[in-house]
Structure formats: C-alpha cells, structure tokens
Amino acid sequence: MIQPLPAADALKPMSPLQVRQTREFIDNLASEAKPYWDMVEIGDQLSRDLLLSAELVILYADGVEDFNPWYEGWRMNSWSIDGESPFGGAIVPPLLVSHFVLSVQFDATRPFSIGSIHTFHDSEILAPIPVGATVRITTTAVDKFEKRERRYVRHGVTVTDVESGILYFKETRDILSL
C-alpha cells in the first residue's frame, strides 16, 4: 500500500510563522500573476536596508565555500570581533550583496510575476564593505527593450552605506519576461 504524502503543515521543522508565510506565498501564486514586463515601468524604484552581520557573512561564505579569513568577524563563543583584512577589519564577501538584489527587485506587495528569468548582470565592486555595516540596496527599472522577439527589463542597482552614504557596489541586471 502506498503511503500518502504528509501535508505541508505536518513537515517538521516548520514554525507557525513559516507555515503562515508558506500559505501566503502559495495563495499569492493563485492571485493576479502577470508577466514581469507588465508589472514594471521605467523609473520604478525599490529599496531595502540590510544588516550585514557576522552571522549572515558566515552563512553566505559557508554556502559558497569561500573560506577567506578576511570575512571572519566572529570567533567561537564570541558575539563578534573586528577581524582582519588588508582593509582593516573583516569585510563582506564582495558578491554577497548581489544575492539580495532579487529580494528587493521583486516587490512582495505586488502579485507574483510569472515567466521571469535573470539573464544578465554586470557587477562593479567599488569599495570593501565592513562586516556589521547596514546597507541600502536600491534597484531602479532603467529600460525595457526587445531582443530577438523577447522582452527584457533592465535594472540599475546600487548598494550604499546607510550611515555614511558610501557607494560600495553597482550592478546592471536584465530580466527576461514572458
């Protein structure tokens, strides 16, 4: 006899918050899903602040297996340490912030977009980001164009320090849309 699969809520570990967020995400999929092209206008801008904590850096560096001592702003049984790099204290892996751009680009308050594929990005690292900095990731829709009968939305991205305004990182991204 074939056993039925467990309901999503029965999977462990899932906290009540995770269950609620999963249900909201699934319900949103059934809502007014539209092609990304139709949801974005040139000039649309979104931004979010992100604390680049030692814990976040550890999770990222472990995940991509980039074990560089420059990123170590922590020590076992210590909350955080200054760390060491040629730039002074510990720094954030240069492309970590690029992974958070999509969480800014796709606005959770809008319906789910369908048929989106990240097809291009060009990153420019301008300055090292110290571990512990809070950055503002801003994405702006700068162009919509067609190429080989396919529709693309181009975004310009900046990552700046919330306190000092230092520009750390710039990126251009293209999203192919149905």
Automatic annotation (TrEMBL):
InterPro entries named in the record: HotDog_dom_sf
Top-rank taxon, per record: Bacteria
Name of the molecule in the record: Acyl dehydratase
Protein's organism: Brevundimonas variabilis
